[in-house]
Structures are given as C-alpha cells and as structure tokens.
Amino acid sequence: MMRRAALITVPYLWLLLLFLVPFLIVFKISLSDTALAIPPYAPTMRDGLFALLAELDFENFVFLTEDDLYWKAYLSSLKIAVISTVLTLLVGYPIAYGMARAPEEWRPTLMMLVILPFWTSFLIRVYAWMGILSNEGLLNQFLQWLGLINDPLTILNTTTAVYIGIVYTYLPFMILPIYAALDRLDDSLNEAAEDLGCSRMQAFWLVTIPLSKNGIIAGSFLVFIPALGEFVIPSLLGGSGTLMIGKVLWEEFFNNRDWPVASAVAVILLLILVIPIVLFQRNQQKQAEAEQ
Amino acid sequence: MKNRILGGVAATALTAVSAMADEVRVYNWSDYIDESLLEKFEAETGIELIYDVFDSNEVLETKMLAGGSGYDVVVPSGTFLQRQISAGAFQKLDMSKLSNNGNLWDVIEDRLKKYDPSNEYAINYMWGTTGIGVNIGKVKEALGEDAPVGSLALLFDPANMEKLAGCGVHFLDAPAEMIPAALAYIGEDPDSQDKDVIAKAEGVLTPVAPFVQKFHSSEYINALANGDICVAFGWSGDILQARDRAAEAENGVEIEYYAPSEGALMWFDNMAIPVDAPNPDAAHKFLNFIMDAQNMAAASNYVYYANGNLASQEFLEEDVIGDTAIYPDAATLENLYTTSPYGPKTQRLVTRMWTKIKSGT
C-alpha cells in the first residue's frame, strides 16, 4: 500500500511542481493589472494575500474577446500547426518505416543520423534555412542552374517557409515514436495477413498502420503542441503576413509591456491545447475499456 | 587531511569572492563599440569584462522590469530610460567615482534632461538621428534627377513608393520611430500622445505599406550596402556603416544619409547601472573608462555615431566630426525633435496599429 502511494505521489508531485505551480503563477498574473514597477504588474504577493485576492479580475480575458486580432491569431496558429503536423507525418512515417525495415546492423546508424541534427543549435539550423531559401539562396541557384525556373522563387518570408521550417525542425520527434512502435511490430503478423489473402498494400493498411497508431499519436502530439505556440521559426522565416499566436504573445510581453494580457493569451493557448488532449485521452480510455 | 579540506574550501570561497569583485557585466547594443576598447579596459583595471549584446530596447526593458538581470551596466535609449527610471530599475550614479565627468557635453546633457531630469541616473553614450538611406543611382533611375531624396515624401508619398517598390524599400520595425516620422510628414506634432493625432499616422503608413519589402531594424545595413534595396528608413550610423561597406566593396553602390527636411528624430543611448547590479563599483569604473576622451573618440570613430563627450571631439577623425550626417550643423540641430515614452494605453494602441499596418489584420 505504502509503495503504491509512493509510486503515485512521485508523478503527481512532478506535475504539481512543473505544471500546476507555473500555471497558477501565470494565471494569477493574467488576473492582475499592469504597473510601472519591478515586476511590471500589480498587485503582487508583497501587497498581502487579501489585497491580492480582492484586486484580481477577469478584465484581461474580456479584453481578448474585444479585438479580432487574438482569435484570428489562434485560428491561424491552429491551421499552421495542423497542416505542418500532417506534413511531418507524411514525411516521417516512410522514414520510420524504412528504418524499422532496414537490416538490424544498420539501425543504430540510421537512428544516429536522425538524432545528429540536434548536435547543432536549433537557431543555427533555422538560420541555415534562411540561407537556403532566400532569393539568392542555394535552392534558387540550384533550380536556376537546372533551368527549371528563370526568376527566383520567393519562399523566404512567406508561410511556405514557416511550414518547411517546422517540418524540418520537428521531424525527429515524429520519426522516433513511430519507429519505436514499428520496431516492436511482429513481422509474422504481416506474413499471416498475406497468407490470409491480403495484398502487401492491404496488409500495410490493415495491420501495420493500426498497430503503429500509438506511435503516430505520440509523434503528432510532439509536433502539434510546440508548433502551435512556435515563435522562433515564424519570426525568422515568416513574413509580416504570417499571423501566429506566439508572435502576438511576444508583442504583448515585450512591446506593450503588458504581462497580464500576455499571461491571459498564454492561459487560453494552454486551454486550447489541454482540453482536446484530455477529451482525447478519455475517449481512448473508454475505447480500451469497451474492448476489454 | 581535514585541515587541507577546510583550507581548500576557504581558498575556493576566497577565489569566488575575488572573482565577483573583479567582474563587470556590460549589456550593450550589438555592433556598438570598438572591441579593442574592451581589452584595454581589462588591461588597465584588471577587472574581467563580460560583454553581452542585445538588438532591441524591448528585450532590455523586459530584463530590467523582471529584475535580477545580473548586469552592471546597460544601455537603454531615452524614452526607455525614462520609463525604467520611473519603475525604479536604476541606481543613482556616484559622481565622486566618475572623475571624467567634466568631459561630458552640456548640450547633450541638457537634451537628456527630458528623460533623466537631473542627469543623475545615466550618462550619454551615443546619439544620432533617424533618417533616410538612399542608393543615389537607383533612386534617380526610378524617380528621375529631381527625386526628393532628403524629404519624407520619398517614403510616404504612395506615388514615389510605387516606383521605388521595384528596387526595394526597408522600414524600421519600430513603431516608436515610424509613427513620429509619419506625423512630422503631415505637419502634426511628432511627439503627440493624443490618440486621434496618432491615428492619423495610420492614414500615412497604410497606403505605402504594400510597397515596403520588409519591416526590419537591422537587415537594411547589408541590404543597402549590397545594392539589394535602394531606400531604407533607419538609424544614421547604420546607414553610414552601409555607405562605408559599399565604398570598401567598390561595387558601384553609392549610399547617402539624409536627416529628413521635415524634421528628424534625435535619439540617445545612455549607460545606466541597474538597481540590483552585482558590482556597482566596477560598473562606475567602466563608465569612467568610457567617459575618457580618447576612449570615447575611439568608439565613435569605429561606429560612426556622435557621442555626448565634448572633450573627445579633438580626437575624432575628420570623417566623423566633419560629417554633418553625424555631427549636424546648427540649422539641422534646430530641426531635430525628441519623443516621450507612450503611456500603457497609448502603447497598446500603437502596437495594435503597427500590427494592422504591417499585416492588414
């Protein structure tokens, strides 16, 4: 009994310390007002707990509903995150599949190659893409040399460049969980399916894909969640027309010095992420129970 | 054995203390000093200098307002300095430790009083104007020989911008610079805090925004020098650096800087000591070092910005002190305006308007 309690306590303590406490701090700031002070909001803990509780209100959340900038930015970020997750899946799945099907002795090397880009700073890799995608960049020079195009393609500072950046950056996060799922897959299941009259294609759709579902889900979450709040990639590769909530958050925090409104934007971003995930998790659990 | 361990601990503790006493952390704008000065400071004082850079006032201000930045010397611009002084982010300077105080230029100190009323929190490092960088050849090709190169009409008249769009125009991604300029162009007070007046700037900027290739606050230096763009609205020293790079590259690109005839924004970057600086003593030594006439002159000769140090002027090179784009003549100086910080409500309005101008949303 004691051991069980201890086992449950550790992850909950983890969650409390690393998720709930920071969230409550941000939530508290979202209910306060800006002030010209260090830190730049009021009231703070120094004003005493009662003064603190009395002065908090939801005015910043009301403000977010009054300007269409915010929901447009949320929607645009959702769209960018969904599309790039699908693209990452389309690119990542075949790579993971190829890795899982490769001869045993190659796999560690292939795994290494997937992880290798992490050895270079993320920022430098995004800067490298600026060099590749610019008008006088490698890609345009190559295409012009091939004679495929006459005038350079404008890719840098557009939303296309943002998609390229996100897919490139998060690809390993998609490949690794799918590879882990496919690696465990018993090959005899596919053979059985083919014995029972499936074509190779059918066996892939009916056996391999469903059995790697958990890897696909994990990979998609790992790409979708950071992509939704992404700031660095759109600010370096995107143009002024690329509206994303991460950029709006930055402007609230740095340009307006409005930590309360910035916190309110962050709280809503978190709700957008957490609520669907919780619903999804519950749905999965129900399905699992129904199957038993 | 025990003694040895204790001795070791004591020695480590001592090193830690002396390391702290001999360290100064400076946070300055990027590309804003002659780096050999940093080595000179270390050699002269024996203090280890840790030099970090930033590229926007907003980043610095957020660090200052969060507190505990760990820096001993920071370099905010005027309006930001004023706001951070009100927030209690800086400590008063100890003038007794600044023996080079007499070198400062009273004209600049007077102007700085707008932000630091008794000149007690900050000393001016560099100052300059915001104006127009022009690739003479390309602009005359687009607009003809009588192109209004020294006027804001070049940037804010859609008819001109439509013709310039083909060769490329960059604007600063800084509403606090662009909105006063737009207001000066239509004859309004550039320092206005009135939201109805500020709204008029939107009417000036929105029609020309589609012709702006990029809103960015540093890329224009290279873009101008390489001939990728023909006009940039930017900071004086940056455009002069572009002019020199183009001249060195001998690529046929000829850049000129113009402080707009309708009036130009005059800005000040100032050194101040955060209230929670770990080593204020060393911070004062760094300030005093920078206030030395020859050191300040070396910095200006390197970055092409004017400084607030009168005594340094005899050590300035002729292409710095003699250039009216850097040290404006009396008539131009009259034509320069300064701005005040926006209040929180106005700031929100300005940021929102800027997003709308740039992205249409």
Automatic annotation (TrEMBL), chain A:
SUPFAM superfamilies to which the protein is assigned, alphabetical: MetI-like (SSF161098)
A Pfam family per the record: BPD_transp_1
Gene3D superfamilies in the cross-refs: MetI-like (1.10.3720.10)
Main subcellular location of this protein, as a coarse class: membrane
Record keywords: Cell membrane, Membrane, Transmembrane, Transmembrane helix, Transport
Coiled coil: none
Gene Ontology cellular-component annotations: plasma membrane
Domain ABC transmembrane type-1: 74-280
Transmembrane segments: 12-31, 73-97, 109-130, 161-182, 203-225, 261-280
Biological processes annotated in GO: transmembrane transport
Localisation: Cell membrane
PROSITE patterns (UniProt xref): ABC_TM1
Similarity comment: Belongs to the binding-protein-dependent transport system permease family. CysTW subfamily.
Protein name (database record): Putrescine transport system permease protein
From TrEMBL, chain B:
Subcellular location: Periplasm
Signal peptide: 1-21
Principal subcellular localization: periplasm
Annotated keywords: Periplasm, Signal, Transport
PANTHER family noted in UniProt: NORSPERMIDINE SENSOR, SPERMIDINE/PUTRESCINE-BINDING PERIPLASMIC PROTEIN
Family affiliation: Belongs to the bacterial solute-binding protein PotD/PotF family.
Name assigned to this protein: Putrescine-binding periplasmic protein
